[in-house]
Amino acid sequence: MGFISLFFSIIALWGYSFINTIDLPHNNTIPLESHRRSSNAIEVPQGRFFIIKKGDNYAAVKLTERIVKGDGGYNYEWYWQNDKSGDFTNKNVIKGKGEVFEKYVRTRGENNSSTVRDAGGIYYIKCKNIKVQWSSSRWIYLNSPTADIEIALTDKTKIEDIDYLNKDLKWNRKK
User: Which of 3-17, 73-87, 135-149 shows the lowest per-residue confidence on average (mean pLDDT)?
Assistant: First the structure.
């Protein structure tokens, strides 16, 4: 009985590790209108840009790859500009890279209760003066510390294809 239990525990751990290291195929193929939304958050795709608007400041962000750090996360690249041209390839554009990941410590308490506390994760995507909260299920929260933001999803994978003045973009804001 002990061997069987050990066998299934090893298989379960391997499966969890494997799932956390792969990029799920649906990340880049779900139609934009099918991404989940709530009153204060929107699910963003991996591998495609989404645009964050704060006043006259715009950031184009792409989750580039899933990472196994802490409890899981993503590397991302970002481009920021505020010249009202809609073009992220201009010379004034500031760009960078970052990572976000969740990292928690879980403790078991009395009566099988559990407590979860932060253990040093990075929970915010930062693009110059724009900062938005993120979670590992690819949700971006609209009640951002830099308040009054809007987010538009795109099907674009290259920064030169992004035009934030495009009238077809659907801007999401906190309801």
Answer: 3-17
What tokens does 117 get? 């506390």
Tokens, residue 70: 């802490």
Amino acid at 92: N
Give the model's confidence band at 110: pLDDT under 50 very low, under 70 low, under 90 confident, else very high: confident
**CB hemisphere CA count around 102 (13 angstroms):** 15
Distance CA 111, CA 93 (A): 55
Which pLDDT band holds residue 2 (cuts at 50, 70, 90)?
Answer: low
Against a cut of 0.90, is the pTM above it? no
User: Which residues, 6+ apart, have CB-to-CB distance to 56 below 8 Å?
Assistant: 82, 84
Q: Which two tokens stand for residue 14?
A: 């391997």
Among 73, 68, 64, 70, which Cα is nearest to 46's? 64
Domain coordinates in residue numbering, the chain = 27-173
CA distance 2 to 163: 60
